[in-house]
Amino acid sequence: MTRKLLFGINVLALVLLLLSFFVPLIAPIKFPLLSLLSLSTLPIIGVNAAFAIYWLVRWDPRFFLSATLLIFAHIYFGPFVLGRKNTQNISEKSIGVLSHNVHLFDKYAEDMDQGHIAQEYELLIKRQAPEIICLQEYTSVHSVDFKKYPHQYIYFNPPFKLMGQAIMSQYPIISRGSLNFQNTANNVIYADVLMDQDTLRVYNVHLQSIGINPTENLVNQGGAEKIKNRISSTFVKQQEQIETLLRHMETVKYPKILAGDFNNTAFSYAYNQIADQFQDTFQKQGHGLGATYYFNGLPLRIDFIFSDPRLDVLDFETSEKSRSDHLPIIARFKR
Asked: What are the b/e assignments for 276-285, b being 16+ CB within 10 Å?
């Protein structure tokens, strides 16, 4: 492959990275096609990094093109990979929030596997010891023991009775509710948790799903054009859902935590709307790439825990394994 052809591919990668800068700023309803870049921004960054290294090794001045844009991307989007790992001791005066899309607790697994799934989940809870748990794609048909969480709010968005959401707490829940998104099983539920004399508003978020099975042939899912339209439509719905959520939060005076499956990345419009007002706990105390979902091997960070700026983030961890197609995440806050 000639250097001229390689440089042409490099220029295309540079243009795509430049366009990705506009994705968090432009509402999907105005330019739905552009929003597709939010899912591919990380690979685009990777391609530009590869070209920067390639030109640098050859002492070619074209190195500065990709390198300069990567520096801007790092400043604009924030770090792509966090090197630090929190080693400080967490005081007893803290509260942990675990969020996980449990994928119906692998409901359709072999009967003999169900016990293993329950055991694995109970070990996760024992190891992390969160005071609050937010679960997406929850089903009431499971064998997991949640007896340590006596205060529970479980909700299935009508008429979808198979898949719901749950907030489980060791502290009393004094009020609860649902935003009830229309014509979808996706939803946001919330609960006010009373800790001693303090009240914390917890939102469990499950934004509109893209609805693409990475293990199934694209042709069987309608082909590339239909998939493109489906994703664009999904991002428009996510915008509407985020706007509904933001309006609802304006009425709440308590410190707030938003946890859940946002079905989009940190390069998206939906993420930007939340991150503009709340802390991304991964950015505060996380480490590594932070991927929570793998789409055909492509690592994506689409599960988040956001917190009110009034809350001190002490720690963040992404679990290394799960029977679900999503990895659990946990953040710990100072009380």
From this structure: eebbbbbbbb
State the residue range of the domain holding 315: 94-334
State whether 159 and 29 are in the same domain: no
- Ramachandran bin of 234, using left for φ above 0, alpha for ψ from -120 to 50, beta for the remaining angles: alpha
Tokens representing residue 200 in the block: 């914390």
Cα 83 to Cα 288: distance, rounded to the nearest angstrom: 6
The candidate with the shortest Cα–Cα distance to 103, out of 261, 330, 300, 306, is: 261
Which of 274, 239, 282, 271 is CA-nearest to residue 256?
A: 274
Residues 127 and 59 in one domain: no
pTM of the predicted model as reported, rounded to 2 decimal places: 0.91
Please give the Cα distance from 230 to 313 (Å, whole number). 36
CA dist., res. 296 & res. 228, Å (int) = 17
Same structural domain, 311 and 277: yes
In angstroms, rounded to a whole number, what is the distance separating the alpha carbons of residues 100 and 323?
11
Same domain, yes or no, for 137 and 246? yes
In angstroms, the CA 78 to CA 68 distance is 15
Read off the pLDDT of residues 18-71 as tens digits, 9 standing for 90 and up: 999 999 999 999 988 888 899 999 999 999 999 999 999 999 999 999 999 999
Q: What is the per-residue pLDDT across 173-208, written as a single tens digit (0 to 9) for each?
A: 999 999 999 889 899 999 999 998 899 999 999 999
Q: With beta carbons less than 8 A apart as the criterion, state whether 313 and 285 touch.
A: yes
* Tokens encoding 80: 């792509």
Neighbours of 175 (CB within 10 A): 12
Angle ∠(319,218,9) on CA atoms, nearest 5: 80
Alpha helices in the chain (DSSP H): 3-20, 41-57, 63-77, 111-128, 223-249, 269-275, 281-285
Task: Among 43, 77, 111, give the residue marking a domain's end.
Answer: 77
CA distance 33 to 293: 23
Asked if the structure places residue 55 within a domain, the reply is yes
Q: How far apart are CA 198 and CA 140, in angstroms?
A: 30
- The answer to whether residue 82 is domain-embedded is no
Whether residue 201 is found in the same domain as residue 235? yes
